[in-house]
Design a protein that fits this description.
5-stranded antiparallel beta sheet, 5 strands, mainly beta, 82 residues, 6% helix
Length: 82
């Protein structure tokens, strides 16, 4: 069963409950080589943790804060840990 939601076609709700939830997002992998003749096993997307802020994603990893490369393609909400 595929629960990944495409972003920005689908967005989490703009509620406090949605903003308090934990999310895993797929972003474009900056190390992917899209070139004919290159054989590799580098995936197209990279898995990261993120926080939904109501209208945008905030990366948990400090490497992406302030960068324009945090372009979310898909997301999934993690189960509550309460």
């Amino acid at each position: 069963m595929n629960n990944w939601q495409p972003y920005p076609q689908t967005k989490p709700d703009n509620t406090l409950k949605a903003q308090e939830a934990d999310y895993v997002v797929l972003i474009a992998n900056p190390f992917y080589v899209n070139k004919q003749g290159v054989v590799h096993n580098i995936p197209r997307h990279r898995v990261e943790l993120a926080i939904w802020c109501g209208n945008h994603w905030l990366p948990v990893d400090a490497d992406y804060i302030g960068e324009h490369t945090f372009d979310v393609k898909y997301f999934i909400q993690l189960p509550s840990h309460n």
